[in-house]
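Quick one, C-alpha cells below:
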C-alpha cells in the first residue's frame, strides 16, 4: 500500500474532511455498512487500514474483547491513538500486505477504503480467510470499479463547471491509476468487479451481501451529494468463512 497519508499536506487536507472531523456519522456509507457487522460482543476484531480508528472504536463500544487496527501511515496511527479515548484498542504501524495474519486468530476483519491501494487483493483475501476463525466475517468497503476505472477518477465538466458525466474507461485493464485527491497526486489500484467477487470466492469465502453505497436521505441536501446518485463510488461486501 502506498503511503500518501504521511504526506503532510495530504494529511492536513484529509483532517478537514467531514468523516475525519465527525467520525462514522459523517460517512455516507455508514448507514449501509453498520448493519453488516455481526454481534461483536466478546469477539476479536482486526481492522486493515484503520485510519483514524473509527471502526476500531465502534468495535470496542460494541463489546469486542480484542481490537487491533493496522495502518501503514504513522500519522494515521498516532491520530487513532489520540482519538481512542482510552478504549482497549491496539494500534500498529503495518501495511496490509505485511501483517502476519496468524491462522484462526480473528472473528471479524474489516477493511474500509483501503483495499483500492493494494495491487494483489486476492493474496490479501487468502490471508484474511486464513486468519479468520470458522464462522468469521470479512467486511470490506473499497472504491467501486466504476469509480476507479478511468485515469484521473473525476467528472467530465460542462463549461459552467457542473458535472456532465463520470467517464468509465479501460475498465478491463486492471492495475495502477494515477489520480489527484485532496490536492496531491495519489496512486491507486483498479480492480474489476469480477476480480473482487471471484477473488473472494476463490479464496474460500461465501458471499453474504454485496451493496453499492448510496448517500442516505438526510445527506442529499449537502453540496455534491445529489451527484453521488449518478454513479457508485463504493462497493461494500460481507463475506463469510464456513463454520467448521
Amino acid at each position: 500500500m502506498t503511503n500518501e497519508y504521511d504526506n503532510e499536506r495530504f494529511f492536513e487536507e484529509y483532517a478537514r474532511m467531514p468523516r475525519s472531523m465527525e467520525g462514522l456519522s459523517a460517512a455516507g456509507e455508514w448507514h449501509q455498512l453498520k448493519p453488516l457487522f455481526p454481534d461483536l460482543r466478546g469477539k476479536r476484531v482486526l481492522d486493515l487500514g484503520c485510519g483514524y480508528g473509527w471502526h476500531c472504536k465502534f468495535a470496542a463500544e460494541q463489546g469486542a474483547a480484542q481490537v487491533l487496527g493496522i495502518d501503514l501511515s504513522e500519522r494515521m496511527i498516532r491520530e487513532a491513538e489520540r482519538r481512542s479515548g482510552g478504549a482497549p484498542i491496539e494500534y500498529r504501524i503495518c501495511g496490509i500486505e505485511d501483517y502476519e495474519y496468524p491462522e484462526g486468530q480473528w472473528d471479524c476483519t474489516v477493511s474500509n477504503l483501503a483495499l483500492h491501494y493494494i495491487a494483489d487483493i486476492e493474496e490479501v483475501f487468502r490471508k484474511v480467510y486464513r486468519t479468520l476463525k470458522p464462522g468469521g466475517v470479512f467486511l470490506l468497503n473499497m472504491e467501486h470499479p466504476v469509480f476507479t476505472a478511468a485515469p484521473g477518477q473525476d467528472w467530465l465538466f460542462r463549461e459552467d463547471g457542473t458535472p456532465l458525466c463520470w467517464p468509465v474507461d479501460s475498465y478491463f485493464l486492471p492495475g495502477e491509476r494515477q489520480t489527484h485527491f485532496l490536492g496531491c497526486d495519489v496512486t491507486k489500484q483498479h480492480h474489476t468487479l469480477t476480480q473482487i467477487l471471484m477473488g473472494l470466492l476463490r479464496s474460500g469465502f461465501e458471499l453474504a451481501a454485496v451493496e453499492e453505497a448510496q448517500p442516505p436521505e438526510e445527506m442529499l441536501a449537502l453540496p455534491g451529494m445529489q451527484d453521488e446518485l449518478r454513479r457508485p463510488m463504493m462497493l461494500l461486501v460481507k463475506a463469510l468463512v464456513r463454520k467448521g
